């Protein structure tokens, strides 16, 4: 399913005035492709990602997945939570793994959140841990994993529910160039395999050699000079 | 409870520490409840074990609250009660705490005097005869006396006729039973006139009388009638003792709720990052609240169970001199109260989960 953000505006109260974090943005990400969202700090990249993930309600505009309008200015917290659980995978800037769960349990948790037996997801979870190269560490807790391994587990966790949309926030910020490039390759490869419409927010264009499109944000708006990268 | 159970295992040190606190508070509360019940029994069992349902007092002042130490009933009063419709039996009962002396030792006892043929004495062998005394097991032990021994009581000498079937005490002294005539020499209340005091109270069995009849009889005879349970408050040592210990239990229950609440407040704050991530991953607020309360319930039920077991085991090891009474009312009831109040404390604390913004998950940690 395609991800489509239409006329999205996000305005925050800022003291006695307001701050426009996202200003009338239109963005379409086709299913199975990866779009990189670039721009300097404060450009509105993470705010746009938060709207796309339903973590923040847009002040104006809509977010659709396929034919379904999923987030609007009137979407409730419970509705947004349900959409995230069933249709969206999230990878955060830091892995944000839960300290008491093993790598495998981080993925199986998704089944529990959906009211199913965690073990019902085990084959899929092991397949994904294998795909990101940490299957041998399935029984380890985050404290026993390296930073790169934790990031890979986080990517597998985001994909375990077969999401239609994958949203990734600064996945390479704590990695060197080589590891960052490999992580982006991994995400774009998995996006193609799973058919997820994927958005990667990044400030480092050098690691984004495998993405399908690049969009640059500046001052809360998408720059007109956005171009499609060659993949 | 997928995450909650794993948190319990992972953060073992923190939860063990908290469990120990819950165990100790539970031990204190249940032990105190058992001690309260034991002290209450030592103070009032001579009253609460009477085979009567009401006690009539005759106080010096019309507005005076009933008290065993101040009550004096006359022959007119107890005979008047015996004639009230619906009153099956009215037995005069003398109550006097005094010093008893046997061949080998002395002890404080409470002498209870009863009329000839009275059913108030828990002694299946027969009635108390003039010149004899029936000792409760506690009194026999305190005086080191047996059947046939002579016991000096308030200046008179009485022969031990037997040991009562039940152990009873009054105001923390063991009970001995005498005839009303013998008791009057101890209680110094004997007199021939019908309006002179003959006993302390009248023990009534009133199954056939309603409240209005009893109130009318009270007004006519100048007495104050209370239920057997309420008569406990007329034992001077009972009210203050019971109020103090019950207040301590109430404080401990409140403290336990506050301690559990404080722990889960700190715990919830420390894991607010995890909660934000869980919300961002699609965990509903209801799921997270159930998870957190389930965790609190596991901690509370486990800690309270161990604490209660400690009280039961500890009570069985204590010497008989420590008056603890372990029953469901002194262990299970406070235990359930501790769990419920703890859950209230935890519930108030984990409610802050509803205010955690999943947007916070986007911030780097």
TrEMBL record, chain A:
Q: Nucleus: present as a keyword of the record?
A: no
| InterPro entries hit by this protein | AAA+_ATPase (IPR003593), ABC_transporter-like_ATP-bd (IPR003439), ABC_transporter-like_CS (IPR017871), ABC_transpr_LolD-like (IPR015854), MacB-like_ATP-bd (IPR017911), P-loop_NTPase (IPR027417)
- PROSITE patterns in the record, alphabetically? ABC_TRANSPORTER_1, ABC_TRANSPORTER_2
> Can the keyword Transport be found in this entry's annotation?
yes
**What positions does the domain ABC transporter occupy?**
3-229
Which keywords fit this entry according to its UniProt record?
ATP-binding, Nucleotide-binding, Transport
The protein's name? ABC transporter ATP-binding protein
**What organism is recorded for this protein?**
Cellulosimicrobium arenosum
List the lineage, top down.
Answer: Bacteria, Bacillati, Actinomycetota, Actinomycetes, Micrococcales
Automatic annotation (TrEMBL), chain B:
Q: Where in the cell is it found?
A: Cell membrane
Q: Which Pfam families match?
A: FtsX
Q: Which residues form the ABC3 transporter permease C-terminal domain?
A: 250-358
Per the record, membrane topology reads: Multi-pass membrane protein
One cellular-component annotation, GO? plasma membrane
Does the record's keyword annotation contain Lipoprotein?
no
Q: What is this protein called?
A: ABC transporter permease
Q: What residue ranges are annotated as transmembrane?
A: 15-35, 250-269, 297-318, 324-346
Q: Which UniProt keywords apply?
A: Cell membrane, Membrane, Transmembrane, Transmembrane helix, Transport
Keyword Cytoplasm listed? The answer is no
Q: Which organism is it from?
A: Cellulosimicrobium arenosum
Cited PANTHER family: ABC TRANSPORTER, MEMBRANE PROTEIN (PTHR43738), HEMIN TRANSPORT SYSTEM PERMEASE PROTEIN HRTB-RELATED (PTHR43738:SF1)
């Amino acid at each position: 399913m395609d991800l489509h953000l239409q006329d999205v505006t996000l305005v925050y109260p800022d003291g006695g005035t307001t701050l426009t974090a996202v200003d009338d943005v239109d963005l379409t990400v086709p299913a199975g492709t990866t779009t990189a969202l670039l721009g300097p700090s404060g450009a509105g990249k993470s705010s746009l990602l938060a709207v796309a993930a339903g973590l923040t309600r847009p002040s104006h505009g809509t977010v659709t997945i396929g034919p379904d309008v999923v987030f609007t200015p009137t979407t409730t917290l419970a509705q947004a939570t349900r959409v995230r659980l069933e249709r969206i995978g999230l990878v955060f800037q830091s892995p944000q793994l839960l300290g008491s769960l093993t790598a495998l349990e981080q993925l199986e948790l998704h089944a529990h959140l959906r009211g199913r037996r965690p073990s019902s997801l085990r084959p899929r979870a092991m397949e994904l841990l294998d795909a990101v190269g940490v299957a041998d560490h399935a029984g380890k807790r985050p404290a026993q994993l390296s930073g790169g391994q934790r990031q890979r587990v986080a990517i597998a966790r985001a994909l375990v529910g077969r999401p239609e949309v994958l949203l990734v926030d600064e996945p390479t910020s704590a990695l060197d160039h080589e590891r960052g490039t490999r992580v982006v390759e991994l995400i774009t490869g998995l996006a193609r395999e799973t058919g997820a419409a994927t958005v990667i927010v990044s400030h480092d264009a050098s690691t984004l050699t495998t993405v399908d499109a690049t969009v640059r944000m500046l001052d809360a708006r998408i720059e007109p000079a956005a171009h499609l990268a060659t993949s | 409870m997928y995450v909650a159970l794993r948190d319990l295992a992972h953060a073992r040190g923190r939860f063990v520490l908290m469990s120990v606190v819950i165990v100790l508070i539970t031990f204190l509360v249940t032990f105190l409840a058992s001690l309260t019940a034991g002290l209450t029994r030592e103070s009032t069992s001579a009253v609460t074990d009477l085979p009567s349902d009401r006690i009539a007092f005759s106080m010096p002042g019309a507005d005076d609250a009933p008290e065993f130490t101040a009550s004096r009933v006359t022959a007119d009063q107890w005979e008047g009660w015996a004639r009230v419709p619906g009153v099956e039996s009215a037995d005069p009962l003398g109550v006097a705490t005094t010093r008893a002396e046997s061949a080998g030792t002395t002890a404080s006892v409470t002498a209870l005097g009863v009329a000839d043929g009275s059913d108030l004495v828990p002694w299946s062998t027969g009635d108390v005869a003039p010149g004899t005394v029936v000792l409760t097991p506690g009194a026999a032990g305190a005086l080191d006396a047996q059947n046939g021994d002579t016991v000096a009581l308030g200046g008179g000498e009485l022969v031990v006729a037997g040991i009562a079937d039940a152990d009873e005490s009054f105001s923390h002294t063991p009970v001995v039973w005498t005839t009303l005539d013998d008791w009057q020499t101890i209680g110094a209340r004997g007199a021939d006139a019908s309006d002179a005091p003959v006993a302390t109270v009248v023990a009534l069995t009133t199954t056939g009388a309603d409240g209005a009849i009893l109130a009318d009889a009270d007004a006519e005879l100048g007495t104050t009638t209370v239920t057997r349970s309420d008569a406990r408050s007329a034992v001077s040592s009972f009210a203050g003792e019971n109020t103090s210990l019950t207040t301590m239990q109430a404080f401990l229950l409140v403290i336990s709720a506050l301690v559990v609440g404080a722990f889960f407040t700190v715990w919830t704050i420390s894991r607010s990052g995890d909660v934000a991530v869980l919300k961002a991953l699609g965990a509903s607020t209801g799921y997270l609240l159930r998870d957190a309360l389930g965790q609190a319930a596991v901690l509370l039920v486990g800690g309270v169970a161990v604490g209660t077991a400690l009280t039961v085991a500890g009570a069985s090891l204590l010497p008989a001199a420590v008056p603890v009474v372990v029953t469901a009312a002194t262990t299970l009831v406070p235990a359930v109260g501790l769990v419920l109040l703890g859950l209230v404390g935890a519930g108030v604390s984990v409610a802050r989960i509803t205010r955690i913004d999943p947007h916070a998950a986007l911030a780097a940690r």
